Amino acid sequence: xxxxxxxxxxxxxxxxxxxxxxxxxxxxxxxxxxxxxxxxxxxxxxxxxxxxxxxxxxxxxxxxxxxxxxxxxxxxxxxxxxxxxxxxxxxxxxxxxxxxxxxxxxxxxxxxxxxxxxxxxxxxxxxxxxxxxxxxxxxxxxxxxxxxxxxxxxxxxxxxxxxxxxxxxxxxxxxxxxxxxxxxxxxxxxxxxxxxxxxxxxxxxxxxxxxxxxxxxxxxxxxxxxxxxxxxxxxxxxxxxxxxxxxxxxxxxxxxxxxxxxxxxxxxxxxxxxxxxxxx
Length: 280
Prior knowledge:
Blueprint: H1 2-21, H2 25-57, H3 71-107, H4 112-123, H5 126-144, H6 157-167, H7 169-187, H8 190-197, H9 202-239, H10 245-255, H11 259-279
Helix pairs in contact: 1-2, 2-11, 3-6, 3-7, 3-9, 4-7, 5-6, 5-9, 7-9, 8-9, 9-10, 9-11, 10-11
């Protein structure tokens, strides 16, 4: 019943903030997101608690051994691994998507080939990309007898490489397409033509008069791509047997062997997504 108490506490704190500060516009504008966050996370905890409890009533107990460590240490270990994977995915996804957009702007090219490639990669689902990566690993092993998968259920550099390549692919495409649209819109504005007519070098025009005004849209696209990664994280970790919080959630939710862990994982991931939504 502890989770029910946490949910009621989040509701109470949020309602308290509304009752105390909603009439003070200056303060309310700054803390409004805290009240909304509390209501949302409280609702998520309550809904997850109800669903897990109902599912447990229809599930045979003892099908999977329970964890031997505490809840917090388990979440810290698996959460650290997931952060490593997300960091690697964001690094290479940002370098690929935003780097390609900036490179085409620097060269003053439309990049039709990149646009077509991005459109194709965007419609391919993440699980198909994961299956393709595993097929490459299998064929390489058959030909050379060398394993390039990186092991099983360990956070090795090779597993992080493969998983981040799959996890960051579609967000990188999204970032590239949004950045190209934003840069294209800014490049047609009058101040860009004026700078070009005055003989300003294109490198300065691109960075100062095109990329800089488009930065708010690019940053928003980056946050959306991060949310896409977090949404695909459980699937990618499960496919690659990566010891992260997403893969752990799928394995636990499939058997409901540890209700506390399932609810905690849902709450953590939902909290991160809600914070990103507030920042966007």
